[in-house]
Amino acid sequence: MDRATFACSTAFFRDSGTSSPAAPGLPGGHVDFIEKVDSFTYSDFFRDYLIPNHPCIFSAKFTEDWGSRRNWVTRDGKPNFEHLLQKFGEAVVPVANCDVKEYNSNPKEQLPFKEYVKYWKEYIRNGYRSSRGCLYLKDWHLSRAFPEHDVYTTPVYFSSDWLNEYWDAVAVDDYRFVYMGPKGSWTPFHADVFRSYSWSANICGRKRWLLYPAGQEEFLKDCHGNLPFDVTAPSLRDRKVYPRYGQSQPPVEIVQEAGEIVFIPSGWHHQVYNLEDTISINHNWVNGCNVAVMWCFLQDELAAVQREINQWKDPMDDWHLQCQLIMKSCTGIDYKEFYNFLKVIAENRISVLEKGLDEEASARDNSKAAISTLGMLHAVFDLKRTAKVLSSLSANEDFRKLDLSSLSPSPEALLHHLEAAIDTALL
């Protein structure tokens, strides 16, 4: 993005650094539809949707040049099973059973992709019924397993993606997924990992989304403080079980057509149905606009763990460490890894500000390519937001009780380097 295009967001990038507020709702449940690619800039998205934390829908024009839109879909808009089998038939994929509840989700198994496609074809022939239940291929890391395939290109609006930047750097995981499922498959009520943003693009098929703005989920909890599995269940109207349901707003409803992309704001709980045989590309991501929300989420998660095992605090010498281990097993991250997450983001931005953007290096490194696209001003914004969260983490009592000797550089040294880089960049 050139400097002139990006200039209109300068005021946001030079803000005080407070985290973006949770949207109280949308007038009349309206969700903006972005029609044209050439008239909608990253600055527009940043100002109107990322900062205010509002959902929107991108038209099919934003995905029309994707390889998956060309090759994974038949002329009549159905999944192209033969092409998919040819490319991915031997892969092993995670499959959930939508007809079975296991805690607050559906049980999963690993199946060969060719076996899942065979099931899907039979399911269609049998009128969308099967003794095996309604099976939904979910959370498939296809891009990681098949990086050479021309599947899609991440739109520039979602390119400031710290989650995948970090997990690519440590080569452990990623948050890029493919979903495939028959008509009637669905995902129960939830908010995304770390209260991240998410975007979901339909390659083919249609989805129905029920969205609740951040904070509305409090009215949907039962008398024990648990969220519902299905927000459409009649039991929610039982005031003895769900005493605050009557105070909740109706959900924001979206019907997403083939080719369209839905942007889900940070911390918005949602439930999703496939209205037809559907394939989608999904990313979860965090950036400077919602990293403070992620940090608040982690503090809440640790506090919940501490309450659960508080009775063992005195007899357990390493109680604080055990709380971190339990939190990581539940959420996928602990405080020390969160520090390393912030460090990778900060050091990438500092490197760019100190050394400039090397085109050859940017071509090899997705994170530097994103910084190159968004520009130096965005790198400074990222550093300012990182500095505020890192300062809060460094002062956090639970973090300071951990053995931090293995962290390099120390949190204090990193924060000093980060603040110095910001000061130099703003001169």
Short description:
The chain is an alpha+beta fold and 427 residues long.
Write the layout of secondary structure elements.
Layout (H helix, E strand, L loop, with lengths): L2 H4 L3 H4 L18 E3 L7 H9 L5 E3 L8 H5 L9 H8 L3 E6 L10 E5 H13 L9 E6 L1 H4 L16 H9 L5 E6 L4 E5 L6 E8 L2 E6 L39 E5 L4 E4 L4 E6 L3 E8 L5 H18 L10 H13 L3 H21 L3 H6 L1 H9 L1 H20 L1 H4 L10 H15 L2
Parallel strand pairs: 1-2
Antiparallel strand pairs: 2-11, 3-4, 3-5, 5-6, 6-13, 7-12, 8-11, 8-13, 9-10, 9-12
**Shape call:** globular
Q: Strand share of the residues?
A: 15-25%
Find the structural class using helix and strand composition: alpha+beta
Number of domains: 2
Order of helices and strands: HHEHEHHEEHEHHEEEEEEEEHHHHHHHH
The CATH class designation of the largest domain is Mainly Beta
Distance separating the two termini: 22 Å
How many helical elements? Answer: 16
What would CATH call the homologous superfamily of the largest domain? Answer: Cupin
Low-confidence stretches: 1-23
Major sheet size, sense and barrel closure: 9 strands, mixed
- Helix percentage range: 25-40%
- What's the gyration radius in Å? 22 Å
CATH 2nd-level architecture of the largest domain = Sandwich
- What's the CATH topology label of the largest domain? Jelly Rolls
Lateral strand order in the biggest sheet:
1-2-11-8-13-6-5-3-4
Mean pLDDT: 91
Family: Belongs to the JMJD6 family.
Catalytic activity: L-lysyl-[protein] + 2-oxoglutarate + O2 = 4-hydroxy-L-lysyl-[protein] + succinate + CO2
GO molecular function: 2-oxoglutarate-dependent dioxygenase activity; catalytic activity, acting on a protein; metal ion binding; sequence-specific DNA binding
Protein name: 2-oxoglutarate and iron-dependent oxygenase JMJD4
